[in-house]
Amino acid sequence: RGLGDVYKRQVYKVIIFASYVIPGVLCGLLWSFILKPNNGLINSLLALIGVKGPAWLTSKPWALIAVIITNVWKTLGYNMMLFLAGLQNVPSMYYEAAALDGVNIWTRFRHITWPLLKPTTLFVTIMTISSSFQVFDTIVVMTSGGPARSSSVLVHYIYQCAFKFYKMGYACSLGWMLAAIIIVITAFQFKADNRFSID
User: Would you call the peptide bond into 147 cis, given omega within 30 degrees of 0 as the criterion?
Assistant: First the structure.
């Protein structure tokens, strides 16, 4: 039974992490089918409860939201594995002492789990923010930055300036600006890591 539980946990980990290893282009194609306005999975499920789903990829208010949902799903497995690693590093003696004192689950989470997961949470937050500036493949596949550039991000705009409008100098300037943003975010991460480090 113990071995079976180990195998089950491994299967669950593979299922959770699978979304991260799917290439961005394939992920964009998959979610383009899921978010189709007429017979897509999401709108079909909404129709079951009497809600008319939006045109996810062709309307201004929803195009960027659709891209965000896709990229959140894609990175969910990676972030979950980071949190799982962080949970495994929480010393069990804290939980044992709390259980002896009769502390409930919510109090244990608030005073033990969450404070000790702060470094992991900070790392995941900073990496997610940093990677959001570099989303490209899913945007190209799903919306091409439209409609009316409502779903375009900085990397996609740099690509358009360089290879569509041939404004190489402007694209280079934007590239340096993107590099500066990532450097600032990385510096903040290192500073925050030192602040939240546990000796």
Answer: yes
- CA 122 to mean position of chain CA atoms: 14
To which residue do tokens 């949190």 refer?
Answer: 83
Distance CA 76, CA 67 (A): 14
The maximal CA–CA distance of the chain, rounded, in angstroms, is 68
Q: Which of 95, 131, 135, 99 is nearest to 116 (CA)?
A: 95
pTM for the structure as a whole: 0.80
The tokens of 121 are what? 């949470």
Sorted by sequence, the CB contacts under 8 Å of residue 167 that are 6+ apart come out as: 161
For residue 155, how far is the Cα from the chain centroid? Answer: 17
pLDDT tens digit sequence for 154-188 = 899 999 999 989 999 999 999 999 889 888 887 87
190 vs 197: CA distance, rounded Å = 10
Are the CB atoms for 119 and 86 separated by under 8 Å?
yes
User: Which of 124, 126, 176 is CA-nearest to residue 154?
Assistant: 176
**What is residue 66's predicted lDDT score, i.e. its pLDDT?**
93
Q: How many other C-beta atoms lie within 10 A of the C-beta of residue 79?
A: 19
